[in-house]
Every structure is written in structure tokens, then in C-alpha cells.
Design a protein that fits this description.
Elements lengths: L5 H19 L3 H10 L1 H11 L2 H7 L2 H16 L9 H7 L3 H20 L1
Protein name: DUF1641 domain-containing protein
InterPro entries: DUF1641
Length: 116
């Protein structure tokens, strides 16, 4: 049996909590199961994940860990930024962190879009 440190157990618990949120709130696990049952979808997904551009992003381990941690934090604090209309979206864009996040999201969307 593998012995885990307290920190590893804490990380594992956090990961399980994130998986629960991903499934219970967003149905992402079920979506992933559906994708994995479709060979064409898996092929397309793998081709995008293993593209040179995606691999160059993934190869930067520190950045990926930051992204994963940010997603987890965002899921936990999802009500911190209240969005209830176009004006609240516009106001939120004045936040430097939101500007950085939007830049990252739009860069990723641009790269994905160029592949289709």
C-alpha cells in the first residue's frame, strides 16, 4: 500500500472535491464519458491536445499548475464576481486580473478556432 503525506492527502481530497463540482454542477465527467465513447471525437481531441501549440503550452509545467489552481479557485469563488447583465460584464473588464484571464481565454479560443 502506498503511504501518502498529509500534503498529498490534502491535494487528493481537493482533487476529488473538484471532480465532484465538475460533475455535479457542470456535468463535465458525463460529458467526458460521452466524448470517450466516440472514437472520432477522441481522435479530434487528441489531435488538438497533441498539436505543437498545445504541447508548447503544456510543457510549461509551472504555467499549467497555475492555470489548474486558478480554475479550482474560480470554481470555489464563482460568486465573487457578480455578473447580471452587460453593464456588470463591462465593469468587470476594468479589473486587471479579469483582463489577463480574458486575454488568455481569447488566445486559446483563437488557436482552437484556427484548427477548425
Amino acid at each position: 500500500m502506498v503511504e501518502l503525506s498529509d500534503e498529498e492527502l490534502k491535494s487528493l481530497k481537493k482533487f476529488i472535491e473538484l471532480l465532484n463540482i465538475a460533475e455535479n454542477k457542470y456535468g463535465l465527467i458525463s460529458l467526458l464519458e460521452g466524448i470517450l465513447e466516440d472514437e472520432k471525437a477522441v481522435g479530434k481531441l487528441l489531435s488538438h491536445i497533441t498539436s505543437d501549440e498545445a504541447l508548447s503550452i503544456i510543457s510549461e509545467k509551472e504555467n499549467m499548475l497555475k492555470i489548474i489552481a486558478s480554475i479550482g479557485d474560480g470554481l470555489e469563488e464563482q460568486n465573487k464576481v457578480k455578473i447580471n447583465g452587460l453593464m456588470s460584464i463591462w465593469k468587470a473588464t476594468h479589473d486587471k486580473d479579469i483582463q489577463k484571464g480574458l486575454s488568455l481565454v481569447f488566445t486559446i479560443l483563437k488557436k482552437l478556432g484556427s484548427k477548425f
